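Hey team,

Filing this mostly as a record. A colleague (T.K.) asked me to run one chain through the structure pipeline before their review meeting, and I want the input and output archived in the tracker in case anyone asks later how it was produced. No errors, nothing strange. Just documentation.

Input sequence:
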Amino acid sequence: MNKTQDTGSTSVVSRIKYSKNMEICLGVIILAVLLIVYFVSGSGITVGASSKMTDEEIRLAETLSNIKGVGSVTVMITNKEIVTNVGGTFGDEDIITKEIEGVVVVAEGASDVAIKMDLINAVCFALNIKTYQVEVFEMK
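Output structure:
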């Protein structure tokens, strides 16, 4: 009878060990996911936004995020297309150019007025646009 009791208690012990191993495995997986999210979001560009941004916007956001005190940045550039007809008939020899209408910058450090002005000046210089075409907001 002792052997039956030992087998029963052994299976309970092995179940407890198995469940603890599962908890440890789940804990390691959760920790790995959190670390990946942390390191990916630690870049100067906000996660998720970079996939929607154009190459020009990404390049500008990377540059702006390197300014002291700025932190993470997202940028949106709005353009308008200007069609100039040089051939006489519409569609024959049209030249299509893009002109920047405005830029929206969202940055962590934008609550500081000096940093906000640095961002506006950097965007105006980089894109050769006027200050009234740039809006800067603090990131939530």
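Quick notes for T.K.: The first strand starts at residue 73 and ends at 85. The chain has two domains: 1-41, 55-138.
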